[in-house]
Amino acid sequence: MGLPFHKLKKLYILYLFLLVFAFFMFAISINLYVSSMQSNGGEGSHPKPPPKRRSLWPHKNIVAHYIGKGDIFGNMTSDDYNMNQFRPVETEGAYGRPVIIPPRDRFRMQRFFRLNSFNILASDRIPLNRTLKDYRTAECRDKKYGSGLPTASVIIVFHNEAWSVLLRTITSVINRSPRHLLKEIILVDDASDRTYLKRQLESYIRVLSVPTHLYRMKKRSGLVPARLMGAEHARGDVLTFLDAHCECSRGWLEPLLARIKESRNVVICPVIDIISDDNFSYTKTFEKHWGAFNWQLSFRWFSSERKRDTNVKDATQPTATPGMAGGLFAIDRKYFYEMGAYDSEMHVWGGENVEMSFRIWQCGGRIEISPCSHVGHVFRSTTPYTFPGGMIDVLTTNLARAATVWMDDWQYFVMLYTQGLSLHVRESVNVTERVALRKKLQCKPFSWYLENIWPEHFFPAPDRFFGKIIWLDGETECAQAYSRHMKNLPGRLLSREWKRAFEEVDSKAEEFTTLIDLERDKCLRPLKESAPRSSLQPVTVGDCTSHAQTMDLFVITPKGQIMTNDNICLTYHEPKQGMIKLLKNRNATTSNVMMTQCTNDSRQLWTYDMDTQQISHRDLKLCLTLKSATNSRSQKTEKVVLTMQCDFKDITQKWGLIPLPWRM
Ligand code: UDP
Ligand code: MN
């Protein structure tokens, strides 16, 4: 019985074939599923927080990702580099929808991504005049701006921008700005070398319905010199700067112009919506975001409630922001020059938004975000272009210029605690002219800016503690000296005031700092070194880090907020059942003390007992304690800081404040 051998063989081959076929179908469907999941991100009806502006620190992130032209040519031809593959399909990307690249083009898509650090294949399928939704609130849509608004010159600078992306920016400006308010569009080419940006671009703009002028930098200079060139040629009342990869949505221009008409010393920014670098979907962001800078002067978005400076409950009113992202804003043309335009010695990219934010506020102006103006921007996670002069050197020089001119005492803090920046870099910059400008405009000190414009800031200050929080296990020299000092203080029994503690440790700062032993002393710090700063992080005690690392550095306010870089605060955070489950799935350790965004609420207020050296939660009266906890997934024990009943004999509850210098 049984089948003859040749039939068996046939069956076997058929079976194999079916197996392979099934496997392929499965792979393709998974691929499609994943990409549809990714692209659905843009469809969500909830506004998203804006992504960070490209983060500059730590350097290794940039250097590792950085793709210069040399590398592109490494596996791309010069034809690839100069090719314009714009082939729009009528409904692609309509209403801000994502573009899904067919599986057959996936490889090509990945190959070409690196040219621009965004998915050019997606952009090349979207018409230049694609429709967008109306992202404004009903109040904004109903708002009437009346006649007599000033006119705008829209200035777009670019270096090697992709054709469809640049032209969609221009098209959206033309189609969504009232013609009588748009004086002109000014393009400045920062010495691009892609061929389509030469004659082809010149003939394209010649026939546009709005006068569009193209100027070219003789050599690659950077966005500041390019914008300065654009501004020189502008004739409109208001300069409106945009990046070359934006899409203006309905009604974007009027609120900006109206605010400047109302008050010419306001620099006004739109809400920056997100155009996905992956599929070019357009996603509305929260209107209530505001911006500022971290310890390394990288721009950051924040979402905590701010006291609004207008008392009217008008949701169309712009809100003040301590910092501007830099790419998209409008400013009165004459005011721009009165205020010193830009620091023309800032090259290529970076630092100019820091400088402008400090300068405008300190010299009597304001920076605001208008909730009624929505403009999309393609946020990229890496830099596609070259950095003549070297990325680190250029960036640190630009930042050193901004810090030296505007930050007074705080410039040293930035130099001391930012890798790559140093007092040495500071010595190498000549900012005489900008210092003279500051004097001429009679600008206020940086302390005024921090106290009045950015009271929630997480920088050190004269009435704050800055330094490390060490665990006083009683053995190290530093811990012993600290405990001895605290024990011998008169009146210590009564004091639970941070201020008093700050004064006491300050008087011994030098001794404590020199006694710290990086090998043996243990510092309060996040459990995971590389975890994203924005997420919930457990806290631990570990090796204290060397000077320029900021992981174990804290600022403590007189009110009792224990803050660190990027607006992160030590928070009492009772894990909810659901949260425990979530964290368990994420392979994490749970604790009731976490590092999370500072919000200025009572969960983030702590007190210090100089007598027992305990840090306790102000309201709950529970003490910060070092304990072992088990990681849910790995089952490894980890040392975690949490709160427990206070016990003055418990060595795991004793903490010392070791101040570090931050100004000269
Ligand atoms: N840009 C320029 N020259 C440079 C660097 C940038 O003209 O050397 C332009 C760039 O094409 C863009 C704008 O300046 O239109 C802002 O740069 P980018 O978008 O890279 O900054 P990001 O938005 O990532 O902060
Ligand atoms: Mn940009």
TrEMBL record:
SMART domains: RICIN. CDD domains: pp-GalNAc-T. Keywords: Disulfide bond, Glycosyltransferase, Golgi apparatus, Lectin, Manganese, Membrane, Metal-binding, Signal-anchor, Transferase, Transmembrane, Transmembrane helix. It is found in: Golgi apparatus membrane. It is a single-pass type II membrane protein. It comes from the Eukaryota. This is Polypeptide N-acetylgalactosaminyltransferase. The lineage of its organism: Eukaryota, Metazoa, Ecdysozoa, Arthropoda, Hexapoda.
